Amino acid sequence: MALLILFFYGLSVYSAYFIYHDAAARENSATLETLKTSSIYQEEATVPKVIEELDNNHANIVEQRKEESQELKSKQEEIETIVGKQSQKIAYLTFDDGPSDITPRVLDILKHYQIPATFFVIGRQVENHVETTKRIVAEGHALGNHTYSHQYRQIYSSVEAFMQDLQKAENLLDKIVQQRPSIIRAPGGTQGNFSPALVKRLLESGYIIHDWNIDARDTSAPLVSAAYIEKQVLEQAKNKDSIIVLFHDGPGKVTLPQALPAIIEGLIQEGYTFQIIDDTTKPVVLMRY
Ligand SMILES: [Zn+2]
């Protein structure tokens, strides 16, 4: 019995110790919980978090502003492009005296840049370069009539002589490419070659006479350098909105294809777009009549 009493006593002391210890532990944990929920503890814990969040926000805002300004910039460029197109600078590239062995190289360059041009062809050259003539048309370029013979003494001997020579070339073009171009260019230009009587006759017959306002001066010597041609065109193009450029793609004009890419790139940079001469193009005529 005494043993039993001793056992229960011991058990109660032991339990009391555990109960006490457990209570103390619970109290500590509760204090910690209180501390954790206290504002100071929370503030201290959240400060680095808040700073991190602020940093992130700031970075986001900076990124957003960057995107917005990029967007504005591209909108601005879009507007400038539209405005630029409305006040268009137009370049009409024209090639006289072909087709020749030079012409396919010119066509390759125009194809590369996707640029249309106008070829004032000579009938005699057309006869010898039928496929090239067809290629000019097939690739979307315009044909103009530059007479059949290009022989000054013959064509400028009388109004009738000119008309016959012109119509010989016209018939040939009709046969080869089914076109009778109304746009014509005088061999050597109108100035000093065309008489008022010839102009009158041509206009009455429905032809449209085109000279140029930029001369590549590629016939100022049998062969001029590519750099010279490039300089002539780009310098004369300054401050002009509409340019009709005179080139020659006749036999042996090997420096023309050499000069052409830089000229096209220079004109593009100056804001020019390229068009063919058609019946609606305002002509440049250098002679006074
Ligand atoms: Zn010519």
Automatic annotation (TrEMBL):
MF annotations from Gene Ontology: hydrolase activity, acting on carbon-nitrogen (but not peptide) bonds
PROSITE patterns noted in UniProt: NODB
PANTHER family, per database record: GLYCOSYL TRANSFERASE-RELATED, POLYSACCHARIDE DEACETYLASE YHEN-RELATED
InterPro entries to which the protein is assigned, alphabetical: Glyco_hydro/deAcase_b/a-brl, NODB_dom, Polysacc_deacetylase_ArnD
Name of the protein in its database record: Polysaccharide deacetylase family protein
Domain spans labelled NodB homology: 89-275
Annotated keywords: Coiled coil
